[in-house]
Amino acid sequence: MSRLRIRHRTGFTYDGNVTASYNEARMLPATLDHQLVLFSKITVSPPAVQHHYSDYWNTRVQAFELLEQHRELSLTAESLVEVRPAAHEPESLGWEALPRAVERSTSLVDHLAATKLTAPPSEVSERARDIAAAADNPTAAAETICTLVHESVEYRPGATTVSTTAAEAWQSRAGVCQDIAHLALGALRAAGIPARYVSGYLHPVADAAIGETVIGESHAWVEWFDGVWRGYDPTNAISIGDRHVVVGRGRDYSDVPPLRGVYAGPASTLFVTVEITREA
């Protein structure tokens, strides 16, 4: 188990005065079976009244509006979280039982269809189906599919944008964690395995000293369903452990963006910093 303190600051600077801004933030971790939130808050500058709710995907959302003129919008999310590796049953559903489980659950159906961001190119779909046909069970197929994506796509910051699709990332064979997760999701779903996008944080240093603050990152990975939900980080080719902190889950990035909104005013520039401190 590890205890992580996370400070995520993000927002926009504007080329002039903004007269109105309406926003939603999804930046605070969730309390789950393997993850306990000890403290969390979001501070907005300029100050704004926040409305808190959980969305359809059960992600914590802070909605707020600013109606006074401002030239910068800044959000600072601070959290203290205890995390331990998720425990999974070793056995999974077989290929015959998995479709029956999907039919009985609306939430599983939601995570089986391709979206605009995750729809894979035909080459990826075919390779995923071939892997599934040769695998003894969905778990083995999912692991091999995620390995294929990891080995085929180079992690390259700046190669893509938030609107890049899985097909575009595959064509360039480069992207960031969001793109790699989208490709893995598209391939898993093409193979008939329900899969969902996970947004959160990753402590980048496996052996970080207690009390040491490092530059962290917002991160994305996947979970697939084979009787239970199993997490995997295809960007780093590692299982989900006590360095991963879950914020939200959805069909793709568009369901769980850290900050989304509209405003009336001139052009803007995004800024983001994430600091993570291991406290235990």
Average pLDDT, rounded to a whole number, is 95
Alpha-beta content class: alpha+beta
Low-confidence stretches: none
Any idea what the CATH architecture of the largest domain is? Roll
CATH class of the largest domain: Alpha Beta
Number of strands: 16
Number of continuous helical runs? 6
Number of self-contained structural domains: 2
* Strand adjacency order, main sheet: 3-6-1-16-10
Helix content: 10-25%
Which word captures the global form?
globular
Tell me the Rg in angstroms: 19 Å
What is the third-level CATH name, the topology of the largest domain? Answer: C8orf32 fold
Order of helices and strands: EEEEEEHHHHEHEHEEEEEEEE
Write up this protein:
It is built from six helices and 16 strands. The strands form four sheets. Strands 3-6-1-16-10 form a five-stranded antiparallel beta sheet, with no helix packed on it. A five-stranded antiparallel beta sheet has the order 13-12-11-9-14, with helices on one face. The chain has two domains: 2-84 and 257-278, Immunoglobulin-like (Sandwich), CATH 2.60.40; 97-255, C8orf32 fold (Roll). It has 280 residues and is an alpha+beta fold. Strand 11 and strand 12 form a beta hairpin.
